[in-house]
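Quick one, T. Sequence first:
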Amino acid sequence: MFRLPNSECKLIFYSSVLIGLVNETQADNRDDLKKIVSNSFILSNSKIREASLTIFDQAEKYDIEILDRFADFFVHFISNFNFEWEWGAW
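Structure tokens:
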């Protein structure tokens, strides 16, 4: 996704893969699906959260194109989880 000047795949591919992985991982327990959907990003995506916070914290080190790609990815990704995020941490 962050390969310059062009990534191998379209940006939508990367966020779709991660969304699919999150949904598959969380859908294992169908009884808790409603709870999972409402809390999916916050509760079970610590690696994505950590990576996102690292990119945000080190933004001055990245090319502007990388930051634009990250912003597009991030918005698409969290839009699939009701825009739930630990916004206070930012």
